[in-house]
Amino acid sequence: MTASYILRRLLIFFIVVWVAASLNFLVLRLSPGDPVAAMLTRMSQQGASVVGSSEIIDRYRETFGLDQPLTVQYLSYLGALARLDLGVSLSQFPSPVISIIARAMPWTVALLVVATLISFVFGNLLGALLAWRRAPGWTRALGVPMMVLGAIPYYLLAILLLFVFAFTLGWFPAGGSSTVGASAEFTLGRLGDIAYHSVLPALSIVLSAIGGWMLGMRAMMVGVLENDYLTLAEAKGLSPRRIFLWYAMRNAILPQVTGLAIYLGSVVSGAVLVEVIFSYPGVGFLLFQAIQNADFTLIQGITFILVLAVGLGILILDIVYPILDPRISYRQR
């Protein structure tokens, strides 16, 4: 890997982030409706007294810079992004957007990273075993139900799990992230309570994702098993487990690692519908509330963080790929 390649990838990363941030800016501002007027309308519907609404709208538009020409707004927006200043929330004024996202981010990352890694490990292992001729018979029996569950959207699976295990059996809570009135101190009991409330949201994501990882890994393994280096490894007398893990699965899993990097990058957006169904206080639920409240500063802040995370995931993957597979080289020949 050369320094010029890393610099070129960094340049591409910044261009991608700039283009995505520009589209994020334009789409929200060119959409119909006035977010300030919509906010005051909601306030009046909730019983708040809004006197002199036109003056209030003008003052808010001036505060948020919405009275400026679009080019001036765009340059100010790019300058703020360079400082990681995502602005102030419209619906939760004067709270900064970055602090609102920071409060919700740990919930989403903890839920989705754990659920994604569990589904990735089990899905790829099961998919590799389905293609391995020496695999035990139970793997084929388990593959069919996993494919069926993988065809069900995760939000429908969440509703089904909620109905069966929360409303019917009562084994798990129907929503939230912790017991109401529980202490906010970080203790083992508090951690167990959070994990208990996260079981159903995580299970809906895991069961829905395992089938996809399984089918992808099985397809990769079928192509790898015909290669000569596996025949050579068997002729050298290596154990079947070593051949399976270090020769077959290691070479087949690279495309899956690419998918994992992109998926982990998009984790910061949250599993919106799952978080809404379970009232889970993550970024997905926050994005849903921001769309409801027409809070475009919060929406564009969340989407920018998402673009940044996906771009960083792909950038890191490009740098780590040669370590995962020595056959990959970025030197020019």
Question: Can you tell me about this structure?
Answer:
- With 333 residues, this protein is mainly alpha-helical.
- It has 2 domains: 3-82, no CATH class; 97-324, MetI-like (MetI-like fold), CATH 1.10.3720.10.
- The chain has helices at residues 3-30, 35-45, 53-63, 70-82, 97-131, 138-150, 154-168, 188-224, 228-235, 240-252, 254-265, 272-277, 283-292, 296-324.
- It starts with a helix and ends in a 9-residue tail after the last helix.
Beta-strand percent range: under 5%
Q: Could you state the order of secondary-structure elements as H and E? A: HHHHHHHHHHHHHH
As a percent range, the share of helical residues equals over 70%
* CATH topology-level name of the largest domain: MetI-like fold
Overall mean pLDDT score?
76
Structural class: mainly alpha
CATH superfamily of the largest domain: MetI-like
Helical element count? 14
Shape: globular
Major β-sheet, in short? none
Low-confidence stretches: 48-52
Instruction: Give the distance, in angstroms, between the N- and C-terminal Cα atoms.
Output: 12 Å
Number of separate strands: 0
CATH class of the largest domain: Mainly Alpha
Estimate nothing, just give the exact number of structural domains: 2
